[in-house]
Amino acid sequence: MEIKSYVKLFNHHGFNFPLNSGEKELIDDCPFCQSEGKFALNQKKSTWRCFSCEAKGNMYGFLSKWHELCLSKTTDEQYEQLAKDRGLSVDILIQFELAYDETNRCWLIPVYKINEHGKRSLINLKTYRVNTDGTKEFFGSPYCSQGLFNQPALQDNHSPVFICEGEWDAMALLGCDLSDFQNAVVVAVPGANTFKEEWVEFFAGRSVYLLYDNDHAGPGGIRIATERLASASVLPSVYALAWPEGSPKDIRDCVIANGPEATVDLLRDNLHEILLENPERVQRESWSQVIDDFRKLYHVDYSFADAATIVAATLLGAKLPGDPLWMFLVGPPSTSKTTIVDAFAFDCQHCESLSKLTSKALISGWKIPGTDDDVSIFPLLKNRTLLIKDYTAVMSLGSGVQEELYGILRDCYDGRVKVTYGNGKTCDYNDVYFSLVAAVTDEIRRDNRSALGERFLKCEVIGEDYDAMALTMAALNSVVKDATRTRNLQLLGCSIRNYLNGVYINPNNLPTLPDKYKLSLSALSLVIGHLRATVAKTQDDLQFRSRPEGGGRVVKQLSKLGLCLSLLLKKPEFDKEVYRLVKKVALDTIKSFQLELCQLLSLNVKGLTTNQIQHRMQIPKTTTQRILGDLQALQVVQRKKVTNPHGTGRDEDSWQLTKNFLQYWNQAELTPKTKTKNLQPI
User: Fold this and answer.
1) Sheet of 99-101: strands edge to edge?
2) Most exposed of 180, 296, 455, 667 (fewest Cβ within 10 Å)?
3) Which pLDDT score is estimated for 645?
């Protein structure tokens, strides 16, 4: 600090040092022990000391000691007089440690912050004085930091917060009952035009109420504050007070004129939300940056990140020709399915959202009298994505309702829907292709409607080894963030929308598909076709020889998904990372005991007995035998007899993958590289 500046601060608090002195040390009487000529200000070192009482320190040390001394001398009568003058309670004045400075005939108002060590430290000592002519002066100590008044109250506290313009307003508001606002914290900025970037993170994820003065500077202060708040890591919900005509000029005057209750009523009726907009904040150069936006709000492990990436690629699929991408987002309850869907739902440019799927929600037979208006959602879906928050509810519908819905969905997938209703209204749509993402529980694994199921791929939102405790703790820690969930989701939706809009799609220059991955995708599709097929039985007898599902449709789906992933991740060609995600979707699509058994046999190519398989998979023996029988009928496994190794009892059945299926399996690179406890070679 410059010498002149340092001297000016001491002069502000009663010293009379010459501003332009060239002396190394300036001498005056000590304000603490009153020793004459013992207080020395070292201009070179910017320190002070008393040679009598041995007090010493820097600028902030002096302010702290001077405030402490004045505070100890402040009387009840002085507090009562100030409370009357300012329209405040004595308790509030004492709470914020206001002190009367007899030497300079002024009040001292300390401003604190929490330092890097977690302790409260003084950063400014403001002075308030009423002159003999009735004029009032209010100054901060020269060259001290401009801080938030009552900033320590924001530490380890996620409550809503009122921001007032000035310390007196904050103290007046704290005398009101703020229980209607979840007992919000109250702070104050030093002026309408002062809102520092370093304060922004104090308000991240909170509800913030701006109570700036009812004057010409107030709107400008609100604009500055909102521009700053828009850069918070978690966007706050911001509300500003729109003063009714004829209102007092600030919060303190309002409390004095109308009383605390009426002031709270005024706030309740006249706080209006401000939509924060900061395009720079939501412009993302890479998809990983969008995933980082998710991390600011939710627990994001690798499975969550994969699922969000696959959903984003599904959205891109709506912009490309060919069979649409329909994706089930699968997981047990409370495993982030809805979180992902809700985030994408705020990308209203690319998505249309339904809480529950019904045939009438898609295509309405309602006919508005005298008009040709179409109230159906279906025509709005062209080249966009339909998001379903709860597909599980569909499976609880009556069989007739289900069949009607599934029939419409099959037609939707093919791009042509025609429905005639009893009121004479006919809905006829052509060439309406759209992507679909539906959140659903594991209950979908029970649904064996292959006519519809083969149109859907599946993506699990959690991995086999997901950390349930981490997910639960993240949910617990997000309780506060839930209060601003809508605002946070708006930010995510904007981040997703802007990134997808920046993905350049040139139909004449799409990412290439190397021959290596053409072979892998073909093999992968055949594996899906074998393991997703059903075996027609009457009890234990085959009705006819079962044949695997053809791979034509699914290979087109997987290749399109890979193309969309390549575009999303800005890759010039289908590569290893893209194939990893495509393979995840493929395996999630056929996730079942059948898949698990094939994974086990791929690790034990010489074969396993029925008992060994049952033991490793930890499922009932009857279930094991049924699965093996089905896979044998589909030519996935083959059986041979082996001699009991103990030399007793009957020979045992040993099972292996068939030569053809093992070839598909290896070409698709499906043998697990990480061996789980159950899936280990014997």
Assistant:
1) 99-101, 106-114, 120-130, 136-139
2) 180
3) 62
